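// run 5 | inverse folding | seed 20
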């Protein structure tokens, strides 16, 4: 959602690649505000377009479907920042994201937020049939908000895992947490403390291999 760094669009491409490896027929809806020299072939990731995509998803989603929502951007406490062409736009708040997800409450939903301070979204987004994964706790940045590589460190630790599809959702996150902690220790950076919330109804599917959950029909 942010045009400042190439890492954010690249994160989405990495997540898409992993999901397609599991289920080539998965329906993908992508928004992006690309950085300089990146393609502009997707609709812009504005708050309005995001709300429209979520509304249409809720219209067609059935209880037996699965929804994976991934957002990569810069963040501040209580905000997911949106920037297009270097211009700051209306950000996403926990309330706006909660409202957008409310129609999907009966649909198993995995929400992944790769942004600084994204832990502020955990409490407002809790729901029985939902798993919420964030790059940080409520008070911390991710790698001091320095993304020099092709991906944000958290997205790479999560979606770049070898064999991650065979792990349960909770073990998948645990591996990412261990990887992040090791990198931070090696680079002498403050811990970001990625978080995970698993709703009561989500516990059954969160303990399944990720590939089985995404392929469920």
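// decoded
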């Amino acid at each position: 959602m942010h045009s400042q760094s190439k890492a954010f669009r690249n994160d989405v491409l990495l997540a898409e690649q992993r999901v397609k490896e599991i289920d080539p027929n998965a329906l993908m809806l992508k928004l992006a505000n690309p950085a300089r020299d990146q393609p502009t072939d997707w609709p812009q990731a504005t708050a309005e377009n995001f709300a429209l995509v979520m509304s249409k998803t809720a219209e067609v989603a059935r209880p037996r479907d699965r929804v994976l929502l991934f957002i990569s951007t810069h963040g501040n406490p209580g905000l997911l920042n949106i920037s297009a062409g270097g211009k700051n736009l209306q950000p996403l708040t926990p309330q706006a994201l909660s409202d957008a997800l409310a129609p999907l409450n009966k649909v198993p939903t995995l929400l992944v937020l790769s942004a600084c301070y994204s832990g502020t979204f955990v409490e407002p987004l809790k729901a029985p049939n939902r798993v919420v994964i964030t790059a940080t706790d409520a008070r911390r940045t991710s790698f001091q908000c320095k993304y020099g590589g092709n991906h944000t460190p958290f997205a790479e630790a999560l979606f770049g895992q070898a064999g991650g599809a065979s792990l349960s959702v909770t073990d998948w996150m645990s591996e990412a947490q261990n990887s992040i902690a090791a990198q931070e220790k090696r680079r002498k950076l403050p811990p970001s403390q990625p978080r995970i919330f698993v709703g009561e109804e989500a516990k059954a599917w969160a303990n399944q291999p990720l590939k089985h959950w995404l392929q469920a029909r």
